[in-house]
Structure formats: structure tokens, C-alpha cells
Amino acid sequence: MVLAGNTNIDRTQAVDVSVIVAVYNEDPRNLVALLDRLESVIAPSGSTYEVLFVNDGSRPPTSNALRQIAAEHDHVKLFELSRNFGQQAAITCGLDNSSGQVVVNIDSDLQDPPELILDMIKKWKEGYDVVYAQRSTRRDRWAKRFTAYWFYRLLGALSTVEIPWDTGDFRLMDRKVVNALQQLPEKTRFLRGMIPWLGFKQCGIAIDRGAREVGESTYTLRKLITLALDGLLALSIAPLYFISVVGGVLLALSLLALVLVVGLGAYLSEALRGQLFIVSCLGVFSGIQVFCTGVVAAYLAKVLDETRARPTYIVANAFGLAQSERADSKPQAAVKSSLAQFAESERNL
Question: Alpha-carbon distance 78 to 69, whole Å?
Fold first, then answer.
């Protein structure tokens, strides 16, 4: 991995909370405001934290602002990607370089309130490994609300994984979930589906997603369509099996038409009977071809599962191990103790 900008980054010292912010051509005013609000939420607790900005190939105004922020704040880390790889890749970069016991991903546009992180941590203290923000209302344009609504419901119907409706990438994850996510080697990543696939104990918190107040959204229609296709192809093999269904229906209809042509042939002219017979036979052979293609597609679906190389299983917890085998239990307990002080300080404010 090649780092640009601030290369003197210590990634070995663990912190309590890591906050990941993927950035692409964001208005610098939003970046400064986001950092101020994150500091006002986390800093009073005394918990150690880091903010990881991932610059996903932004233009100079955003890039220069990020470098200045990283130079002025010791707890800020900046990773500059060599080009625009996309939001999911940028978030993955942040996850790979985070060190917090809990990791929070949040957008840079301030439509998701950073103050919700406190509620997420409380849910984490209750035993949840993943806490995601679920949009009860959103103040986006009508077309975006409409397409997002139906996308999640269509994906939920076709996916082999139960994906929460109306969620984005604003979520908190325990360190063990981040470690498990790093075991998934696929290059095309749809984190909103991959994280539910991991399992663990997950819950949602309803939020009222605000409208963007500063700047313009950089998430174009093309990017939204690409994200939707990535999600469908990564989590569903239904389109492959659909080929067999189409072939079976075509074959059945063609056989029915052939039977009717033969049975009612006496009532049809010779020319019409011959034409219908030829069309029905072509339909039968086409149905057989499509159905056989669907059988091949079913095997291809199995090959696809193997080439994704996802782990066969993921261990969430282990008990009854020797002390040397659970050496990571003490750091986790220490961090949870620190975050307990965090929540306590917030209640006293």
C-alpha cells in the first residue's frame, strides 16, 4: 500500500474508537464541521479515538483541505488513494487501517448525525456487535427516495442474506466484526450486504436523515446503478436460476402449442397448420436450449460461490480456551471499561 500526504502515521497503537470518513470532492466546510462535531461527541469522555479520512481521488480543494486537517490534528489520519476507486473501496481502506476496538463509518456530508455515535456505543455496551442507522425518514429528492425504497425491497427479496431495509453505511462495528470482514477477499465489495452476511448480533437505530446543507452530492445516478448491480450480483444468484425458469416456461408453452396444433389440425388450413407446427417445434427446441443453459448457470452459481473464497464459517466467540489462546480478552475488557466511562460521562453532562 502506498500512502501519500502524512506518512508518519502510527498504526500500531490501539484506540477505543475509530471513525472512518470516505471523502470524494466534499465541500471543505463539511469536513471541518464534521470533525468539530466528532470532537464534541467523543473528546469529553476521555476515550482515545482516531479519525481516518480516506481521500478517494478528490480534486485539489478537497485534497488540500484534508492535508491541512491532518497536519493540524494529531488524532487524524489521512489516506490518499491513487485515483477514485469508489466509496466501498475507500471505506475498506479505512477499515484495514483502523485500530479501534469499535469502528464507526460515517459519510462526510453531515446528513447522518455524528451525535448518534453515543447511542450506537450504548447498544454496543448492551452486547450488540453491529449497530446500524436505519432511515425512518430522509430528505433527499423524490427520485432518490423512490429508487432507494424499491432497491432495498427488491434486493431483500432476491438476496440469500437478510439485508436491513433503508440502511446506508453509517454503522458501528466491534473489532471482531472488522477482523471477520477482512477475511472476505472479494474485490467488488457491497458492505451493506457483506456485513449482514457475517452474522453476529446486529441491531438498528432509527434516524431522521437530514438534507445536505452545504455542497452538492457526488453520488451520481451512474454510481447508484453500479452500487445496486454490485449488491445484486454479490448477494444473489437468483438471476442465474431465473434462466432455468424462463427455459422451463418456454418449453411448457411450446409443448402445449404443439399439442393444440396436432389436436386441432383438422380445423385449420394446411398452410396455417404447417406454419404453427414449425413455430411450435422451434419453441420446443428453444425452450430446451434455454433450460439447458439454466442448468449450466446453476453450476456456474456454485463455481461463483467457490471463487468468492468466503470463509466456510466465522467464530463469534470461544469459551473454555486456555489462557494463552484468549490473550485478546483483556484488551477488549479494558476498552469496554473505558467506553463505559465514556457513556457515564455523557449521562452526567
Answer: 9
| DSSP code per residue over 72-94 | H-TTEEEEE-SS---HHHHHHHH
How many other CB atoms sit within 10 Å of the CB of residue 121?
A: 25
Segment 61-120, tens digit of pLDDT: 999 999 999 888 888 999 988 888 888 888 988 898 898 899 999 988 888 888 889 889
Domain-wise residue ranges, the chain: 15-236, 238-308
What is the Rg, in whole angstroms, of the alpha carbon atoms belonging to the chain? 26
Q: Which of 16, 12, 242, 207 is nearest to 112 (CA)?
A: 207
pLDDT digits (tens, 9 = 90+) for 18-55: 999 999 988 899 899 999 999 998 888 778 889 999 99
- The Cα–Cα gap between 64 and 62 comes to 6
Chain centre to alpha carbon of residue 314: 18
CA pair distance 151, 175, nearest whole angstrom: 29
- Decide if domain 15-236 falls under CATH 3.40.30.10: no
pTM beyond 0.70: the answer is no
| CB-neighbour burial class of residue 45 (10 A; exposed 0-12, middle 13-18, buried 19+) | buried
